[in-house]
Amino acid sequence: MAEKDGPYLVHCTEGKDRTGFVCMLIEMLCGASYQEIIDDYMITYDNYYEITEQKDKAKYDIILDKNLIAMMYTVAGSKTVELKTADLSAFARAYLVKAGMTDIQIDGLVDRLTK
């Protein structure tokens, strides 16, 4: 993605595991807010299971905590980070550097995805 023009296809069975992680990581990297990431991720649960914050807050909160928030903490490298106010982009960048990407590759990815 950092070296080729789109379109890009990222998928898994339902969009909440592998795809959910990749999309969350890209959204963090490109500057999406905490709430924007939550809203995007939870669409899958509405689409597949009709679980929304309004329809079933208990299930919604469990899914959010056990899945998305856990993945965000993994990228952040700590469970003590205040995700709502943290620089999520910096966490995503550090995560990708640790995974082997260079700053130039990351900049290229952000450039392609935000222009």
Question: Explain this structure to me?
Answer:
- The protein is mainly α and 115 residues long.
- It has one domain.
- Helix content is 62%, strand content 0%.
- It has 5 helices and no strands.
- It has helices at 18-29, 34-49, 57-76, 88-98, 103-114.
- α1 crosses α3 (57-76) and α1 (18-29) crosses α4.
- The chain is globular, with a radius of gyration of 15 Å.
- The model has no long low-confidence stretch (mean pLDDT 95).
Largest sheet: none
Radius of gyration: 15 Å
Beta-strand content estimate? under 5%
- Give the strand tally: 0
Q: Secondary-structure element sequence?
A: HHHHH
Count of discrete domains? 1
Distance between the termini: 13 Å
- Number of helix segments? 5
Residue share in helix = 55-70%
| Secondary structure category | mainly alpha
Low-confidence stretches: none
Shape: globular
> What is the average of the pLDDT values?
95
